[in-house]
UniProtKB/TrEMBL annotation:
Superkingdom of origin: Bacteria
Keywords: Capsid protein, Metal-binding, Oxidoreductase, Virion
Matches recorded under InterPro entries: Cu-oxidase-like_N (IPR011707), Cu-oxidase_2nd (IPR001117), Cu-oxidase_C (IPR011706), Cu-oxidase_fam (IPR045087), Cu_oxidase_Cu_BS (IPR002355), Cupredoxin (IPR008972)
Protein name per its UniProtKB record: Spore coat protein A
Domain Plastocyanin-like: 75-179, 236-297, 357-477
Family: Belongs to the multicopper oxidase family.
Cross-referenced PROSITE patterns: MULTICOPPER_OXIDASE2 (PS00080)
Species name: Streptomyces lavendulae subsp. lavendulae
An example molecular function term from Gene Ontology annotations: copper ion binding
Length: 479
């Protein structure tokens, strides 16, 4: 099968890449997204999962991985792979210092492995690509100690060679970790603190998802919290939106249609040191952006669109360039504030090790094309990087491709971005704690991390799921 892999970021285009040598199913009659009515469906809120048991130290949850049918496109029903039958997946609200235990039962017909993305967890609860929950009733219990500070985490399938399709078919959820540092601030909260999962999709005329590895060109229906181009009613006051890019390959550059200010207050690993005031917030697959929008500047009755400016030349701005319509429907009291100082990050310790990571995939379009880290495809039995427990290291990560963007995600730790293309990072969203960082073709980033807390084998990889499934992943062992 020749599976196309075309990815847009700043107009970058990746040519056809062959990923899997299997025969595709008979093609379904494809839905023309031009005919989908926009801003007719209300954006739902993801359900908050309640623990079935709480003790003085631990909250216990159960989830069932199962198929469910939902209306994503108006008037059509779509079969999905879900957590607890919900799409978007549920939200777990956790607290630093309080343990969470989740028992996952896999009622699907495919294996799964659930990764809590951005979490500091022991190896046996990391959801590594080969630590599988067997289909048709297999179970696994994951323990999340929550010893890290507040962070905007999310969970998704990570079963190797299956993660791309499983995530595309719905297997994502949100995990909001808070602490006293965050709680002491008077940021928008409660009904004004909204998790939003963004992605793209492709549909058949009967509403079913069409999955083809790497078919970025055809995934041109934008979803927010599981609905195509929804609207969301807001009061004329400040809102906090915790945005997660759950797409397989799409990059988003989000802005309000009138160019008004967005205040980014956080990223993957929680709050930034100080607010970043901008008109555009960019997130690559797997990244999170914590953003405050002040709707008090708009009269009641105003509609304003959140748009995506990362539109490739072959794409329609009327499709992938539209995301959510906000409707200002009422006034509301607002005593929330965005303080000038959000948190203080500890000083960076001295690094004792420097490493280089080269990310590259075949761009010839020939059969059997693969993706590599340091010239090698992923091997579950090979340790690519040996790390001393407690070591602080600097990794220089390069995208060596001419056309394809990538991004770099590291399990176990949050890192700090030191440089981008040789220039120090001194302002903006990359001054916070990160676990995923984008790289356009030819770009280089330098990151620093300290490997402590747990020993074991973890992976680092490109978080464009199709690239990881093609081999762009490696093992590191902390011992």
């Amino acid at each position: 099968m020749a599976a196309t892999s075309i990815v847009g970021t700043g107009g970058m285009l990746l040519p056809v890449v062959n990923a899997v040598a299997t025969e595709p199913p008979a093609p379904a009659a494809e839905l023309d997204p031009v005919g989908i009515a926009k801003f007719t469906q209300r954006m739902p809120l993801a359900p908050v999962l309640q623990p079935y048991l709480t003790t003085s130290t631990t909250s216990y949850y159960r989830m069932n991985l199962k198929e469910a049918s939902k209306e994503i496109v108006p008037g059509l029903t779509t079969r999905l792979r879900t957590f607890n039958g919900s799409f978007p997946g549920p939200v777990i609200k956790a607290e630093s210092g309080r343990r969470v235990v989740v028992r996952q039962t896999n009622s699907l017909s495919v294996p799964t492995s659930i990764h809590l993305h951005g979490a500091h967890v022991p190896q046996d609860s990391d959801g590594s690509p080969m630590d599988l929950i067997e289909p048709d009733g297999g179970t696994k219990t994951y323990t999340y100690p929550n010893t890290q500070p507040h962070a905007n985490l999310w969970f998704h399938d990570h079963a190797h060679h299956m993660e791309s399709e499983n995530v595309f078919r719905g297997m994502t959820g949100t995990y909001v970790l808070t602490d006293d540092i965050e709680r002491r601030l008077r940021l928008p909260s409660g009904a004004y603190d909204i998790p939003v999962s963004l992605r793209d999709a492709r549909f058949a005329q009967n509403g079913e998802l069409i999955y083809e590895m790497g078919d970025f060109r055809k995934r041109n229906v934008i979803l927010a919290n599981g609905k195509s181009w929804p609207y969301f009613e807001v009061a004329a006051r400040k809102y906090r939106f915790r945005l997660t890019n759950t797409a397989n390959q799409r990059f988003f550059a989000l802005r309000l249609a009138d160019g008004s200010e967005l205040v980014q207050i956080g990223t993957d690993g929680g709050l930034l040191p100080s607010p970043y005031r901008t008109d555009t917030v960019a997130i690559s697959p797997g990244e999170r952006a914590d953003v405050v929008i002040d709707f008090s500047r708009y009269p009641v009755g105003t509609t304003i669109e959140l748009v995506n400016k990362d539109v490739a030349p072959f794409e329609s701005a009327d499709l992938v360039g539209k995301v959510i319509q906000f409707r200002v429907t009422r006034t509301a009291h607002d005593d929330s504030v965005v303080p000038d100082t959000l948190r203080t990050l500890p000083p960076l310790p001295a690094a004792s090790v420097n490493r280089s990571v080269d990310m590259k995939m075949d761009e010839t379009g020939s059969p059997g094309s693969q993706a590599y880290i340091n010239g090698k495809t992923y091997d579950m039995d090979r340790i690519d990087t040996e790390i001393a427990y407690g070591a602080t290291e600097i990794w220089t990560v390069k995208n060596s491709n001419q056309f394809a963007p990538h991004n770099f995600h590291m399990h176990l730790v949050q890192f700090r971005v030191l440089e981008r293309n040789g220039q120090p990072v001194t302002s903006g969203p990359e001054t916070g704690l990160k676990d995923t960082v984008p790289l356009k073709p030819g770009e280089t980033v330098k990151v620093q991390a300290t490997f402590t807390g747990y020993r074991g084998t973890y992976v680092y990889h490109c978080h464009l799921f199709d690239h990881g499934a093609m081999g762009m992943m490696a093992n590191m062992r902390i011992s």
